[in-house]
Design brief:
The structure is a homodimer of 311-residue chains. With 311 residues, chain A is of the alpha/beta class. The first copy, chain A, is built from 13 helices and 14 strands. The first copy, chain A, has helices spanning 10-22, 47-56, 74-83, 92-106, 111-121, 150-156, 180-185, 197-205, 210-215, 235-241, 248-254, 272-277, 292-310; strands spanning 3-7, 28-32, 38-40, 43-45, 127-130, 137-142, 146-149, 163-169, 189-192, 219-222, 225-226, 229-230, 261-265, 281-285. In chain A, the strands form four sheets. A seven-stranded parallel sheet of chain A has the order 5-2-1-9-10-13-14, with helices on both faces. In chain A, strand 6 and strand 7 form a beta hairpin. In chain A, 49% of the residues are buried. Chain A binds chain B through residues 41-43, 68, 71-72, 74-79, 81-83, 91-93, 95-97, 99-100, 102-103, 106, 118, 121-122, and chain B through 41-43, 71-72, 74-79, 81-83, 91-93, 95-97, 99-100, 102-103, 106, 118, 121-122.
Chain lengths: 311, 311
C-alpha cells in the first residue's frame, strides 16, 4: 500500500507515529507544513518539521508537545539577558538543529535535502518532505495587532488576538518539493492527519499542484475536533472567530470536494448524518491518541478502511 | 592617568582584570585582538573579545581559560551528531553571545557597537574596543597543512603543525575602530599586555594607524615569556619554529622601536643587560598572575612605573 500523509504539528505527529509503525518506508511519504517556519534571530526554525522528526526519532518532549526531551535552557537564559525579548523557547539541544539547518540552507542546500540529511542522522527511515523548498508564511490577520506571522500569533501572543483572516504569503508562486506530486500520483490514498485544517493542512494545499493531485486520489481526513473542542492548540477558538462552528462537520465541509471520508471520534457519532449529506463517508472510532497503542490503533483503522474501500 | 591597553586572550585578560581594579572607566581603553575571529557554522566567534569580556564580567571559566563558568554542553553534543566535525567547543551559555552578536552584525551593526552593547548588558563599565570593525584574519602558514586560520591551527590542530609564517589577511586595508587612534593620542601611556606578541598583539599593530600612534607614546610591554616558556599557549613553540629563542629578550627585540620599557619576571633577571642594549628599560617584578591579588599587583607595578617615569 502506498500512502501519502499530510501533517502539521502535534496531532499530525501522533498519527504519523502510528502510520510508521505499520507501513514500511517504501509505503509512506509524509508531507509536512512549513507555513509556521520563521526566523529566530537569524536561525531558521521549522516547528512542524521538528515536531514530526523529533517524534519519529523519539527525541520529542511528550509533555509539552514541542521541543526535545531532557532539554536544558542555559542558552535561552543567557540570550534573554542580551536580547530582552525571546518569546520563542529554544532549548540547548533543539538549538543544534536550528544552527545546523540554518548553515546548510545558507550554503544553498534546499530544505528537503536538509530534512533528508537530518532524518538520516536521527535514524528516521520513513520519508519526510517539507511541502516546499520555498518560503511560504502563514499570516494570521488579527483585530488587535493586524497581520502576524503564525508563530508570533501562536507563541508570542499565545493565540489571544482575535483572528479575522488567514493567508499564505510567498514571494513568488511556491513550488511543491521535488518528488511530492509524483508521490501523491503514485499513492493508493492520501491521509490528512488530525492537524488544524486552516493552519496546518491548508498551507500544504495552497502549494500549486498539491491540491489538484490530491483531488484525484482517494483521500481520508482524520478530524482534529472532538465534541466541539480541539485536542490541542487554537483550532476551536479560531473556528469561532472565523464564524465557523468548531465541529467535525465544519472540518468535513472545509475539505468538501477533496476528501472521500472523514474519521470522527466516538463522541461525535451524532454528526454522521450531517457528514453523509456532504457526500463524505464518516467513520466513527477512537481518535484520541494518548498512548503509542492509541496511535497505532487509529493508524490501523485508517489503513484498514482504505484497503477495504479503495484497494 | 589615561591608559590604553592592547590585549589578546588569557594573559591579556589577566592584566586587564588588574588594570580595571585600579583605573576608572574614564582612565582606561582596552583594544582587543580580533585576528582570531572566525565563522563557526554561520556564527561569528570572537575568542579574545569574549575572553576579555567574560573575565571582566566574572563570567569566565578560570580553569580552562576560555568560555563561560558553570557551562553545559547539550548543544555541542547534539550538534556533533548532525555535523560530525565540531572542533571548536561552544557551550550552551557561550552560544547566546555568538547567536546575538551574529544577528546584530548581520543587521549591519559594526562590531564595536555590538561589543559596547554586550558590555553594557554584562555590567562592564570599562571601555573595550575591537581593534577594527573590519575582518582581519590571522593566518598561520604551516609545514603540514599550508595556511590555516588561527583557530584552526590553535584549536582544531592543537598547535601541533609547524609554523613557518604568520600573516594578517583582510579584503581591503582595515580601518582602526573609530575612536581608538584618538584614545591612543590622548593617552599618557600604552600597555602591551602579556599576550603572544606574534599572534595577539601584532594583529592589532597591523591595523594602519595604530602602530604609528603608539610609537609617539610612552609604551610599556609585559613579557608573556618566563624562563624561556610561555605561561599559556603556543608562544614558545612558535618562537622556536620561527627561529627565535623564546625569551623575554626576543619579545623586547620584537617590540624594538615601539616600546620604552618591558616588564620581566623575577626569574628573568639575567636578561637585564641584553634588554638595556636595545635601549629598552627592563623592569623586574612578579609577572605570574594566579590570583586576583597577583593581577592587581602587576597592574599596580606597571601603573606606578608609568607614573614615576612618564607623567
Amino acid at each position: 500500500m502506498k500512502i501519502v500523509a499530510l501533517a502539521g504539528g502535534v496531532g499530525g505527529a501522533k498519527l504519523v507515529q502510528g502510520l510508521v509503525e505499520i507501513l514500511t518506508p517504501d509505503e509512506l511519504v509524509i508531507i509536512v507544513n512549513t507555513g509556521d517556519d520563521f526566523n529566530f534571530h537569524g536561525l531558521r526554525i521549522c516547528p512542524d518539521l521538528d515536531t514530526i522528526c523529533y517524534t519519529l526519532a523519539e527525541l520529542s518532549n511528550i509533555e509539552t508537545g514541542w521541543g526535545r526531551k531532557d532539554e536544558s535552557w542555559q542558552f535561552l537564559t543567557e540570550f534573554k539577558i542580551l536580547c530582552g525579548e525571546a518569546w520563542f523557547q529554544v532549548g540547548d539541544k533543539d538549538l543544534a538543529t536550528h544552527v545546523y539547518r540554518t548553515e546548510e540552507l545558507n550554503t544553498g542546500q534546499p530544505l528537503h535535502l536538509v530534512v533528508q540529511d537530518l532524518c538520516a542522522k536521527w535514524g528516521i527511515k520513513h520519508r519526510i518532505f517539507p511541502m516546499s523548498d520555498d518560503i511560504v508564511m502563514t499570516i494570521v490577520d488579527t483585530v488587535e495587532f493586524g497581520e502576524l506571522q503564525f508563530q508570533e500569533y501562536f507563541v508570542r501572543h499565545q493565540c489571544k488576538p482575535k483572528v479575522t483572516k488567514i493567508r499564505f504569503d510567498s514571494k513568488d508562486a511556491p513550488n511543491p518539493t521535488p518528488g511530492i506530486i509524483d508521490a501523491i500520483n503514485r499513492s493508493d490514498a492520501v491521509v490528512l492527519c488530525p492537524s488544524n485544517p486552516w493552519l496546518s493542512i491548508d498551507p500544504i494545499l495552497s502549494i500549486p499542484g498539491i491540491g489538484s493531485a490530491i483531488k484525484k486520489k482517494f483521500t481520508v481526513a482524520v478530524s482534529p475536533i472532538i465534541g466541539g473542542k480541539a485536542i490541542k492548540g487554537p483550532a476551536a477558538k479560531i473556528f469561532y472567530e472565523l464564524g465557523i462552528t468548531p465541529t467535525s462537520t465544519s472540518v468535513a465541509e472545509h475539505y468538501e470536494g477533496l476528501i472521500n471520508s472523514i474519521f470522527l471520534d466516538n463522541r461525535d457519532g451524532n454528526l454522521v448524518d450531517e457528514i453523509v449529506k456532504l457526500e463524505i463517508t464518516p467513520v466513527i472510532t477512537n481518535t484520541i491518541m494518548n498512548s503509542k497503542q492509541d496511535k497505532i490503533q487509529l493508524a490501523n483503522d485508517v489503513l484498514n478502511f482504505i484497503q477495504r474501500i479503495n484497494i
